Amino acid sequence: MTAHCQLPLRAMLFVPGDSARKQEKSLTSGADAVIIDLEDSVVPEKRAEARQLTHDFIAAHKHDADAPDLWLRINPLDTRDAIDDLETALDADPVGIVLPKCTGPEQVAELDHLLFERERKANLREGSTAILPIVTETPGAAMTLHRYLEGKFAGKARLAGLSWGAEDLSAAIGASRKRKADGSWTFPYQMVRAQVLLTAHALDVQAIDTLHADFRDTEGLIAYAQAGRSDGFSGMLAIHPAQVEPIQTAFTPSDEEIAEAEAVVAAFAENPGAGAVSLDGKMLDRPHLKLAERILAQQ
């Protein structure tokens, strides 16, 4: 990947593009990435002001040693607002672009082309701006996920990951509920969530789970984040600073997990030609090694 985002991306915190106070506060949130939002959190009449505020914030803090990665969520790519977002804010050099309501890999390729043009214009390193598309916010988009695997589409080198959303999708299909009484997703959302997870892993990029909308429900957030990591997601979107610490904890391996993973890796290192090894009375094969290496990469 030519883009310069740090990995893993565990907690990715949304911050309104029109709030200088919240942007400054986000610097000490503990998130791996802060996404300055120019889309849903900014009313149309304030977007011009928000673009300039966002540009100045990213430019001022992009080199801070202890700052999170600074991302930008633009407006949907088929709008004039999206072009204005890129023209105003890109020369501040955000780490990446979150692409909402992405209609499919063709739109990632279109954004890739636009980024190349604006990187050259802003004297930025070509290919340095990553892309994180939200790939399930319309019914049509949710049915295109297999096309991300058809050959090497333009823009693939910029992909930091894939994420999904339930709010816009539920509105698009007229769903009266998204979750069952026990809090689990209903079938349409289980299906698209699983497809995003598998597609991200097939592309070898980060699988970023969707947000937990009730930011006061810490218990529910912890349970959801832990389930997300158990399912194979590498991180999660956040909409409030209070959500960051529980998400970071859930997606960071415990000391016990790290010790176990290190022991597995060491056992295979001592037997480089073996397809399986014995450790603490258990027979482990290559998939165990792969899982251990993945756990160590999540530190």
Automatic annotation (TrEMBL):
This is CoA ester lyase. Keywords: Lyase, Magnesium, Metal-binding. The keyword NAD does not apply. Residues 10-241 form the HpcH/HpaI aldolase/citrate lyase domain. Gene3D superfamilies: Phosphoenolpyruvate-binding domains. One of its GO terms (molecular function) is magnesium ion binding. InterPro entries: Aldolase/citrate-lyase_domain (IPR005000), Citrate_lyase_beta/mcl1/mcl2 (IPR011206), Pyrv/PenolPyrv_kinase-like_dom (IPR015813), Pyrv_kinase-like_dom_sf (IPR040442). It comes from the Bacteria. Substrate binds at R73, E137. SUPFAM superfamilies: Phosphoenolpyruvate/pyruvate domain. GO terms for biological process: oxaloacetate metabolic process. Its cofactor is Mg(2+). The keyword Magnesium applies. Belongs to the HpcH/HpaI aldolase family. Mg(2+) binds at E137, D168. Pfam families: HpcH_HpaI.
